[in-house]
Structures are given as C-alpha cells and as structure tokens.
Amino acid sequence: MSAQKLSGWLVVVISMVAGMLLVSCGTLRRDVSKASVEPATIEGAEYIGTEQCGVCHPEKVKNFKGEVHASFVATKGEKPMGEGCEACHGPGSLHAQYPEDETKVLMGRTDRCFNCHLDKRGKFNMLYHHPVPEGIMSCTDCHNPHEAEKPVREVRHINDTCVECHPDVKGPWTFPHPAVKEDGCTVCHDPHGSNLDKLLVADSPNLCLRCHFSAQHPTVIGNEDHMTNFNALRRGCLNCHRGVHGSNFNPHLRHP
Fold first, then answer.
1. Which of 166, 207, 214, 164 is nearest to 188 (CA)?
2. Residues of the chain with pLDDT > 90: what percent?
3. pLDDT score, position 130
4. Integer Cα distance of 29 and 17 in angstroms
5. How sure is the predictor about 192, in pLDDT bands with cuts at 50, 70 and 90?
6. Alpha-carbon gap, residue 3 to 131, rounded angstroms
7. Where are the beta strands (DSSP E) in 17-101?
8. Does the pTM of the predicted model rise above 0.90?
C-alpha cells in the first residue's frame, strides 16, 4: 500500500474513533424518538420555536413537518434548548429581528451536518471526495433537509442530481449501461468519499464482477470465457468496455 493511501486510511480511522467518542458523550442519541444534538451558539440570541420561524418561512416549515430533522432537539446536559429549525440553525430571536443579517443565523454549514452524520464526515476525509470540506460544495447541493417528501434525493432522483454537475455522462445513450439506468450512479460510486479514484466503491474487475459474475460471460477473445482467460482478466474490463455509462455504437459498451 502506498504512503498516500496509508495516510488516507489513518485519517478515516481517527475520524471514526473521534465520532464514537462524540456519541459516547451523549451529544447525539439515535435510540430515542427525538435525537439530541449539540446546541449551536449565536451570541445574545434566544430560542423562539419553529412556529415563529414559519412567520417568514411558511413553506419551509410546512414541508419540514414530518421530516426526520424536525425531531431534532438541541440540549445542554439534560436541558432541552430548542428543536426543529433551531436545532440546526441556532436560536432564532436575533435572526427574527435582523433577517438581512446572515451573522444572526447559522446557514447551511456542513459542520452542523457532520455533528450527526459522523460516518459521512469520515468519508469526506478520504483521498477522493466531493469538495465539501473545502467549501466549494455543501451538503444541501445534493440533499434537501427540509422536505419530508424528498429528504435526501430519493433513489429515483439520484441520477438527476449527479448529472447536474456531470452532464457528460447523462446521455441519452443508444445502449445505456443497465446499472446506471436502473439502479443509479451510487452502484459504482460513493458520492461522499473513497480511497479509489473517481469515488469508486471497488476496483475493476471486482467492481464489474458484482453484477457480471457469470463464469461463461461472452468474450471477444476467441470462444473462451472471461473468468478462465488470463489475458482478459489481466487486461481489465475497462480496456475493452470503455463506455461504462453508455454507448451510442456498441451494445457491449466497447465504445463510448
């Protein structure tokens, strides 16, 4: 293993250990009906309640009811401080007084998301990740934390979300890759982070063999099958099947 990959794994392990320690301290409890989160700090502000937020944000509050984030409660020790909107955005009294001043409310900050989503924080420390920690992207570019109907871009919306930034793989293709069409980009890619290039969840040919496991899979190398043909395995799937997202020329995806 290269030094670069080893360092990446060490960062992930450290992040996971830190996450477990955070959970053990009681700042997040997933085993109760209302999850407890660490209170956000806005100097001089007081909690006013989600209903008060609805005066200026009626649609967001309406759609928010029933969404999992609506059950979050900010606590200090055993004392509840605020729930719903204020669990993530902080106490809202000053924001209500000065709505144009963005310093009076916590906007879509990733550190608030990472306070609960510890596994995702670990993944964003991997070698390859979307530029969320760098501040170029935010969690809300892909996820909608306010709508109960579409809380995290449901599976049928995943491809639509990805192609907003990756239009080159959208197609339409004459011969689409069934995995992309039916199951979505996340069959092959982990959008939060990976130690493999292109955010792959496994290396080729192991990645391809998750679906193409037949020992008698047709091959272009004579009449032999892929699994017993050393040259086919040694060369790797992508040397021949380069149109992994789809092809306009070949049903076996041999050409983009």
1. 207
2. 20
3. 94
4. 17
5. very high
6. 22
7. 36-37, 73-76, 79-83
8. no
Query: Tokens 């996340």, residue?
Result: 186
pLDDT value at residue 75: 73
- CA 62 to mean position of chain CA atoms: 25
Confidence of residue 63 (pLDDT cuts 50, 70, 90): confident
For residue 110, the number of C-alpha atoms closer than 13 Å in the C-beta half-sphere is 18
State how far the Cα of 34 lies from the Cα of 31, in Å rounded to an integer: 8
Work out the mean pLDDT of the chain and round it to a whole number: 76
CB-side exposure of 183: number of CA atoms within 13 Å? 9
CA distances from 256 to 108, 171, 180 (A): 38, 10, 14
* CA-wise closest residue to 89 among 134, 41, 57, 55: 41
**Structure token digits, residue 80:** 């509840």
